Amino acid sequence: MFLALKEIKHEKMRYGLIVFMIFLIAYMILATWGLAYGLARENTVALEGWQTKSVVLNKNANLFMNSSILTKDDLKKINLTDKEAVVGELQVVAKKKGKTGINAQYMGVKKGEFIYKDQDVIAGRRAKSKYEVTADSSFKDKGYKLGDKVTLNGSDHKYTIVGFVKDAKINIEPIMYGFLPAWKELKNVAPGIEASGIISQRKLSVKGKNFKTYGIKEFTQKLPGHSEQNMTFELMIAFMFIISLAIVAVFLYILTIQKLPNYAVLRAQGVPAKTLIWATVSQSLLLVTSALVLALLAIWGTAAAIPASVPMAFTPGIFVATIGGMLVMALLGGLNPVRTILKIDPVQAIGG
Amino acid sequence: MAAIEIKNVKKVYGQGDAATVALKGVDFSADTGNVVLLMGPSGAGKSTLLTIMGALQTATSGKVEIDGQDISQLKEKDRSRLRLNKLGFILQAYNLVPYLTVKEQFQLVDKVKKTGNLRQEELKDLLADLGIENLVKKYPENLSGGQKQRVAIARAMYANPKILLADEPTASLDSERVEEVGRLFKKLAKDDRKAIILVTHDPRLEKYADHIYDMMDGQLSQRK
Ligand SMILES: Nc1ncnc2c1ncn2[C@@H]1O[C@H](COP(=O)(O)OP(=O)(O)OP(=O)(O)O)[C@@H](O)[C@H]1O
Ligand SMILES: [Mg+2]
Predict the structure, then answer these.
(1) What gap in Å lies between CA A94 and CA A171, rounded to an integer?
(2) Which domain holds residue B180?
(3) Closest chain B CA to residue A261
(4) SS3 for B207?
(5) Of B91, B156, B163, which Cα lies nearest the Cα of A262?
(6) pLDDT interval class at A8 (50, 70, 90)
(7) Residue A269, phi then psi, degrees to nearest 5
(8) Which PROSITE patterns does the record associate with it (chain B) (predicted)?
(9) For B76-151, where are the E strands, in sequence order?
(10) Residue A1's pLDDT is what?
(11) Residue B31 is inside which H or E element, if any?
């Protein structure tokens, strides 16, 4: 550690640049990953919030809730508990006078259901009557206010936003929570049609002539574009991750190789190889750790400063993988030259 | 007792057609309390001999004893420990750690060799003797060649080795400094009972030597 620290202290510029470079790499990994995950999460965040385990949909809807319909008869065949919520989903364009429309998912629910009760209201209140809605907070970020009246798909009736809710997003679109009667009106359904589907917090396995239960995994994979997008993100991040980690390892390796002539002298003077190995490894770890601390601070600042319309989100796994991967590379980069250090011929030090 | 005893040492570099015989059966010994010079033309084998008695490399054949211990069979790890504890080197190139100040060069010795180093006042005297007491805060890059050489001498002596080996220690010193360093070597040998072996081309050191050997084509002959 003595040698590692003194060397950094003496060559501040050089080591500052190295830390800066590793910082940039760590920051790039975290930012890209956070953005990708933030976007991917908007596909499913509402479903997760509802703690969905299974979804009942019309058999012929191809797992697409928007085109699924359940009839009164269908619903009768299903034993509904407080773990199920009957919902009517409709793709809508919400438009306030003088503003451009926003694509949203109208989600008609029932007052007694968990989806209605569990809304994470951050401003205003839950809807009470047919033409009231709560909207995802992104509406608020786009300048909508409590009390604003909007038309949905050019409806005659205006809908009043009475509350904003957090994490109400499905398939990258904001949700507007309202009621099933309003959904029927908006969708203009035939008599006897009651809902789009059922969200269940249990692992249901009901089946009927018209409907089928799907596990949440199957359902989310079929969200339009979702699995394709995830695949792209995963590959993109995997490539970036592997390549940048390799860069870090190679960089630290070069750094250590440059010390070898000097180490020959120290070996000649009897300084144990152990001391020199520890000097390189501890230095690698120190540089990477400082860079990681900076990257975490920077990403924290970025996530706070970035506009809400660009979602950035993280799981503990993202941090663990980035930090772990970087530290392992530090070890590899620092340890790689160990064989070389052990094989240093101290005679070289004599130089003549 | 001889600090270093070498009997019939041969050293061959390389193999077959490329083989170079650097030492052709050399006998040599140096006692504590003596300054011994190794002189001779370039390529004669001086550095080779110095590195063999400095436990930096092994002889092809023959016997090498340091402080009574046969080192020809030692593993590198044990040779390293021997170098740390008994030998001091003043080397031609890369003598000092570039990113340590003069003072820290000594601290590094303390880190790896916990006991038997000079006490602080002894170090102070040594630095004064070498005229480098004002340079302790400087980095090697800010020292002149001669100053570096003297710091290297101080560093080697700081570990208080029994045997001091130097390759061209006066190469970049002016005449006055050469005389001072010569006197210092002599004083260290006599007062501190060290064996000091110097490879040099510098005839100005001859008057401080107890013995002088000439190396020629891998063979050694004693002049004094
Ligand atoms: N590592 C090596 N591999 C092969 N040959 C070597 C090696 N080191 C030295 N030699 C050869 O051994 C002989 C003795 O070299 P050595 O370095 O001991 O000479 P020297 O007396 O120290 O010369 P100088 O005064 O130039 O430093 C030379 O012929 C040299 O070319
Ligand atoms: Mg030489």
Answers:
(1) 16
(2) 2-222
(3) B94
(4) helix
(5) B91
(6) very high
(7) -80, 5
(8) ABC_TRANSPORTER_1, ABC_TRANSPORTER_2
(9) 87-90
(10) 84
(11) strand B20-31
Helix A226-257 vs helix A12-49: angle between axes, to the nearest 10 degrees? 160
User: Is residue A339 scored above 90 in pLDDT?
Assistant: no
Indicate the number of domains in chain B: 1
Which stretch, A27-31, A225-229, A266-270, has highest mean pLDDT?
A27-31
Q: Does residue A44 register a pLDDT over 60?
A: yes
- Closest approach of chain A CAs to the CA of B89, in angstroms? 6
Indicate whether B176 pLDDT > 90: no
Of A28-32, B114-118, B149-153, B168-172, the range with the lowest mean pLDDT is B168-172
Asked if pLDDT for residue B94 goes beyond 60, the answer is: no
Choose from A2, A15, A269, A278 for mutation: most chain B CBs within 10 A: A269
- Rounded CA-CA distance A171/A47 in Å is 10
> Nearest CA to CA, how far is B82 from chain A (Å)?
7
Q: Ligand 2 centre and the CA of B46: distance in Å?
A: 6
Task: At A274, list the tokens.
Answer: 């152990």
* Helix, strand, coil distribution of chain A in percent, nearest 5: 55, 20, 25
A10 touches chain B (CB under 8 A): yes
Residues of B with CB under 8 A from a CB of A: 47, 50-51, 54, 56-57, 77, 80-85, 87, 89, 91-95, 97-100, 104, 107-108, 111-113, 139, 156, 167-168
Q: Which of B57, B81, B94 sits opposite A351 (nearest CB)?
A: B94
- Protein residues whose CB sits closer than 6 Å to any atom of ligand 1: A 352; B 13-14, 20, 22, 40, 42-48
CA distance A18 to B139: 22
Contact B93 A267 (CB under 8 A): no
Q: What is the CA radius of gyration of chain A?
A: 29
CA distance B43 to A347: 16
Residue B73 — pLDDT band, cuts 50, 70, 90?
confident
Closest listed residue to residue B156, CA positions, set B135, B181, B180: B181
Q: How many CB pairs under 8 A join A and B?
A: 87
Q: Domain holding B65: CATH number? A: 3.40.50.300
CB contact under 8 A, A262 and B51: no
Q: Do A270 and B91 touch (CB under 8 A)?
A: no
